[in-house]
Structures are given as C-alpha cells and as structure tokens.
Design goal:
Distance between the termini of chain A: 43 Å
Protein name (chains A, B): MarR family transcriptional regulator
Shape of chain A: globular
Largest sheet of chain A: 2 strands, antiparallel
CATH architecture of chain A: Orthogonal Bundle
Radius of gyration of chain A: 20 Å
CATH class of chain A: Mainly Alpha
Pfam families (chains A, B): MarR_2 (PF12802)
Helix content of chain A: over 70%
Organism (chains A, B): Aquibaculum arenosum
Strand content of chain A: 5-15%
Number of helices of chain A: 8
Number of strands of chain A: 2
Oligomer: homodimer
CATH topology of chain A: Arc Repressor Mutant, subunit A
Structural class of chain A: mainly alpha
Number of domains of chain A: 1
CATH superfamily of chain A: Winged helix-like DNA-binding domain superfamily/Winged helix DNA-binding domain
Keywords (chains A, B): DNA-binding, Transcription, Transcription regulation
Chain lengths: ~170, ~170
Amino acid sequence: MTDIKAQVNPLFLREEELRQGIELLFFSYRDFTGEADRILADKAFGRAHHRVIYFVGRHPGMAVTQLLGILKITKQSLSRVLGQLVEEGYVRQTPGERDRRQRLLELTEKGRALERQLSAAQMEMVARAYRAAGAEAVEGFRTVLLGLINEEDRKRFLERETAGGAKR
Amino acid sequence: MTDIKAQVNPLFLREEELRQGIELLFFSYRDFTGEADRILADKAFGRAHHRVIYFVGRHPGMAVTQLLGILKITKQSLSRVLGQLVEEGYVRQTPGERDRRQRLLELTEKGRALERQLSAAQMEMVARAYRAAGAEAVEGFRTVLLGLINEEDRKRFLERETAGGAKR
DNA sequence: GAACTAAGTCAACATGACTGACATAAAAGC
DNA sequence: GCTTTTATGTCAGTCATGTTGACTTAGTTC
C-alpha cells in the first residue's frame, strides 16, 4: 500500500523521512536533557545553570561576552543565573589581566564536582547510544548534526577536530 | 602534543568525543528550533504551540491524553496553549464516538496552513543537512538518536518504520 | 451503584527568557 | 587628553512555559 503511495507521489517518502528526522531531534533532546534536569532539580537549579556550568567548565577563563555568544541569550538573562552560581560558590570571577574590564569565569572545586556529576550522566547516555550504534553510525550522527549548526559554530567544531588530531 | 595526552590517558579522547556529542546536540537543537521560533514570534505563538500543532497534524484525531503522553507535560500546561489554538481556530476538538469523554484533536485548514509553513522550514533545514551528509550518514544519525530515546518512544519509531515498509 | 478515567478549571508559583534604560570602569581612537 | 566604544552589571517590567494541588463534570467500567 505504501509502495503504491510512493509511486504516485515520489515526494511522500522523502517528506516522511524528513519528519522522522524532526521527531528524532525532538524526542532525543527531550530525553537527553531530562536526565540532567532531575539531578539539577535537587539543587534548585535549572537547565540554564547547567549550561553555564558546562561551558565555563569547558572553557575556563572565558569572559562573560564569550559565554553570552555561545548561549545566545541576553546578559540580563544570564546575570540572574550566573549571579546565583557565583553567590553559591560554583563559579569564580577574576578580573582579566590584559583587559581589566573583563570578569573571567572559572569553576570552583564545588563547581567542578557538580559539572562532573552532570556530565557523567549525560556522557553515560551518549556512550550507551554510541556503543549500541557503532563507530560508523557515530560518524554519521556527527556529520548530520554539524550540518544543522550555523556556519560560525560549525567552524569552531571543525577547527577543534583538526587541532585535536588523532581522532580520525 | 595531544597525541602524547592520548597515550598517557587513554580515556581522554573518549571523554572528549562524548563531550562533543553533548555539544552537538545542544547547538544543533538550538539552531534547529531557532528557525521555526522566528516564524512563530510573528503570530505571538511559542514553541509549545508549535509542538501541539505538529503532533496534532501528525496524528489527526488523537485524544488529549495521548498528546500529553507525547509532550510529557501536565494537562494544565497544555490547556493554556491548546485553548488558545482552539479559540483562534487552528485546532478543532470533536467528541470521540467510541468514548464520548474524549475530545479528539485535529487541525483546521488554518491550522494545516501554519503546520505546513513551520514544517517546511524545518524540513528544509533537515533536508539540507541530509543532502550534505549523504545517505549513509543519515542512517547513522537516525541510529544514534534512536539510542538516546526512551524505550517506549523508540518502539513507536521502529514499528512505524517496519509498518511503513519500502524505506530500507 | 461505586470506582475509575478523560478532560477541564482555578489558583499560586518558579524558571528562564525578553526589552528598555541607565551606570561604571576600562580601553581604544583621534 | 578628550571622546567614543566596549565589558559588565543593574533595575524594572513583561511574557511564555512549565510546575503542584485541589476540585468538577461527564462518561465508562466493574
């Protein structure tokens, strides 16, 4: 029956395939973030705190403007979240040496501990999916997701990849 | 230099790889939804409205409880959004025949028009990424994302795939 | 007839985003 | 050296989307 449909409208399967892609992104992101959300709920933190902790942990010494660029939110939005994290001792701000207007961000030991806890959960999920799918599928996963990302951030990924060497 | 690191700590590359997976999901989802968000902003609708329109369009005649199960939000959250969509003539509710307690949901013509507009934008993004990546990569993308999705929803995908036949 | 289920409602609240206006300090440009 | 730009922060108000909890109404099931 679907074979007939496919013959009548050759675009049908293509649209179906694309819609499945859309749904896969929706469901996988929903379930992927759900894991960490549960951990954060205990600490009265939200997804926004997680993102800050993640990226500050990933790029220690980054300036506030850089972080805003990654998160693509306004500084007013960030300030509440970042303020809480600083106040509760997860993130430390130190004036920049080169440019003393900057407040460079880094995780405290407490912050690193939370970062590890959150990342461990998510890395475990990704690792499970990677193992189940195999190396070739992982390569495809990366290629397609890269294609969904805007030019600028995509470049960052590709640079890191070649700079890191030894990967493929 | 990174080669040395990899030899000293064999887990380094693995962790790096997993973190890249996490970031790919974050950035791709951010950019992927950004496209539709801009269209919705004109109509004073948000992402929540989009999800309702999408899934009602995908499964015409579905009951409210089913929709809640897919979205994994509370009925109170849904009611506001659904109420607006019904009021503004995007979604129609009709009592179920088998079970008259149910209000079965379907898009109106107006709703289908918006659905097409939104989906066209996202399908275009996915299509572009698929084309650039190639069929093999797409298969890997699907496999890995399926592995990130909870058991139950994953089954739904796999059933649809085999039922639809003719795909692979 | 009692118990359960589908759907909806009212109320209060939390989170995370936004715009707009303004303040301070340091850097950069002329 | 004065002006302009930049980095950061703050105050105030608003909006969208989620939550919990309590309760109602109507229909189904046992």
